[in-house]
């Protein structure tokens, strides 16, 4: 079997309507321009962004300004997708808390991570290649959803707003700003 010597992975942001945000961050603040949510179409949309930014800065008309304007959800009264997204977050929040982990620390092989039960409590557990155990509180420090194990990248990922944490709980990517709490087996 072939060995994978290198791996590459990335997170890709997507807006609610899947069209990038390119333009002024808000209508009232004309000092900050934003370009994001390219959904793997960065080569194309970075060029669109450059042209649109040029026209916005020079106060020239551009036919794509309204298509990409980042404030479109605020001004659009049909915010059904926004509501649906928040309902999905709430579902993750409740479901994550109710689901009882079936694994225990002893079930984990080296280089494996999972949500486990330790003394009846949920924890995120990972054993490194030498069998060293890392235990973290599985409650996301952003808004309290339950993180999930990402075996491809060996991170704890939050399904609610995309925060990611390292095996020792450090923040890899926000919106969370605080690390997951490290847990010692004796603490529980
Ligand atoms: S609860 Fe928001 S990123 Fe985890």
Short characterization:
The protein is built from 4 helices and 9 strands. By secondary structure, it is α+β, with helices and mostly antiparallel strands. The chain has 2 domains: 21-78, no CATH class; 98-187, 3-layer Sandwich (Rieske Iron-sulfur Protein), CATH 2.102.10.
- Ligands present: FE2/S2 (inorganic) cluster
What helical percentage do the residues reach?
10-25%
As a percent range, the share of strand residues is 15-25%
What's the CATH H-level homologous superfamily of the largest domain?
Answer: Rieske [2Fe-2S] iron-sulphur domain
Name given to the CATH architecture of the largest domain: 3-layer Sandwich
Average pLDDT value?
A: 85
What's the tally of helices?
4
Organism: Caldibacillus thermoamylovorans
Cofactor: [2Fe-2S] cluster
Pfam families: Rieske
EC number: 1.-.-.-
Explain this structure to me?
- Its EC number is 1.-.-.-.
- One of its GO terms (molecular function) is metal ion binding.
- Keywords: 2Fe-2S, Disulfide bond, Iron, Iron-sulfur, Metal-binding, Oxidoreductase.
- This is Putative Rieske 2Fe-2S iron-sulfur protein YhfW.
- The chain folds into two domains: 21-78, no CATH class; 98-187, Rieske Iron-sulfur Protein (3-layer Sandwich), CATH 2.102.10.10.
- A hairpin with a 5-residue loop joins strand 4 (121-127) and strand 5 (133-137).
- It starts with 20 loop residues before the first strand and ends in a 15-residue tail after the last strand.
- The chain is of the alpha+beta class.
- The chain contains four helices and nine strands.
- The structure holds FE2/S2 (inorganic) cluster.
- FE2/S2 (inorganic) cluster (FES) binds at residues 140, 142-145, 158, 160-163, 175-176.
